[in-house]
Amino acid sequence: MACPLCDDTGWKPVDEEGARRVVRCECWRETVGRRRLAAANIPKRYLHCSLANFAAYNESLEHAVAAARRVAEVFPVVGRGLCLEGQPGVGKTHLAVAVLTQVVQTAGARGLFYDTRDLLRVIRSTYDPSIRTTELEVLRPVMTADLLVLDDLGAEKTSEWVDETMNLIVNTRYNERRLTIFTSNYLDIPDDTDPNSLLYRIGFRMRSRLHEMCEFVQLDGADYRELPANGGVDDLVTLWKMRRKTLPSRGGRQARAQLREPAVRDGRADLKWPGGRAGS
Fold it and tell me: Is the pLDDT of residue 21 over 90?
C-alpha cells in the first residue's frame, strides 16, 4: 500500500506561509534508517539495546545514561564523542549501541559498530591473496562513518602493526572531526607501567587524541552476565554491592597513577615515554 502522504515518492507537500513546497516524508526517513541500521554491523546480542531499557541503578550509571542521551539527542551538532570505561559487564556496549541506534534511526546517519579485535582481524585478513577485499575497502567506511563505535579498546594484543593501524583510524577521525564512541575495560590513569591502565594499552599519543575527541565516563556497576535467570534490577544492585566489597580498593592504584618523575639529563627532562607503544 502506497504512503498516503507522498505516494511512495519520498517527498510530501507542505504549505508554509502561503508557499507550497516539498520535504522528505517520514516513510523515507524510516526506510533509510532501517537500511542503514542493518548495515551498521551491530551484533545480534545488542540489537535490543536502547537508552530506555538501560538499568541505571546508581549515580555513575545515571550519569553515563545522561551523557549518552546528550550525544544522541543533539547529533549531529555535537563536538565530542564518549569513552565509556569500567569493569566487564557494566553496560558500556549497551549504551554505545543505544546511541548508535538512535542516531541512525532519527538522523539517518551512517553508523558503524566494530569490536576492536574483530576490526583488526578483518583488516589483517585482506593481506591474504585469496581474500578479494582490500585494506582500503575495509578502512574507508570505518574512517568515514558519521558515528563509529569501537568496542573493547585496549583488549587487542599490542604490536607495531596494531599501533600504526589504530593510530591511523583514530587520527583520521580526529582530523575530520567525526564522532566516535569508545568502550574499554581499562581505567584511564596516567600510569604507563600498569598493564591495567588504558595508557599502557594504547600509548600517549592515542590517549591524548581520545581526551580531545571524547568525554570520559566511568561506569560502576554489577556484571549483568552474572544476573540469574529472571533476575531484575534488585538483583543487579545486590551483585553490584557484592562486587564493590570484593574488588580491591582503587586508592592504591590511583596513588600510583601519576606520571613518573622525569630525570634530568644535560639540563633537559627525560620523560621516559615509551616510543614503542602506539605513539612516540
Answer: no
